[in-house]
Amino acid sequence: MCKSSNLLELLKKAFFANVDYLFVGGSTVTREQFSTCVEFINKNSKIPLVIFPGASHQISDQADALLYLSLISGRNPDFLIGHHVNSASEVFSMKIETIPCGYIFIDGGTNSSVAYVSQTTPIPGNKMSIIQNTAKAGILKGNRLLYFDAGSGAKNHVPVDVVKKADTLNVPIIVGGGIRNIEKLERMRNAGANVIVIGNKIEEDINFLLEIKSFIELSPLNCKPVVNS
After folding, report:
1. 2 and 40 Cβ atoms separated by less than 8 Å
2. What 8-state DSSP symbol labels residue 181?
3. Could you list the residue range(s) of the whole structural domain that residue 115 is in?
4. Burial letters for 38-48: b for 16+ Cβ neighbours within 10 Å, e otherwise?
5. Which of 84, 87, 114, 140 has the highest CB neighbour count under 10 A?
């Protein structure tokens, strides 16, 4: 969504809708696409910009924060520590807030690009003990956030019970994937999500941001709506 005309419209409507953060990054984003997008947003938006990296090249000192993601639901060493080693020296020298984040990939009913690129298998949504123990392990390893993601274009969002159980672990929770209407957004909010990420739905229908604005005004959130570019 980084064509300048489309992105500028998105930024204007996101600001009007009181979106709290913009996430930039993804599994198949190239270095050039990433840099172009970050630079454009930095020049045209005052909404805090957070990097949601899919690889070690997706870093920039023009963002406000970096989610230093570890794919703790998988067993691919590149996404557990490899990309971190590749980027550590550059990140260490940046004046940017870096937040250790445990990324837990939940089966969303589609062949997600996350699974393809990371070569990992999502955890089935009904395997509550595995999900809960993975989340606890992430916290014990020092992750300050938990990100539960059903993947880009997911048919099914992260199960409500997953979010409810994670809410008892006393760390902020990010939830994304498959949230395509206000009813699903409300379910995630009521389950305890602190940050709700919406990507594909807004790419398909940018006016969904206006529905989010109305929902926030009518039912104040205890979470933060986020646009993933």
Report:
1. yes
2. S
3. 4-228
4. bebbeeebebe
5. 114
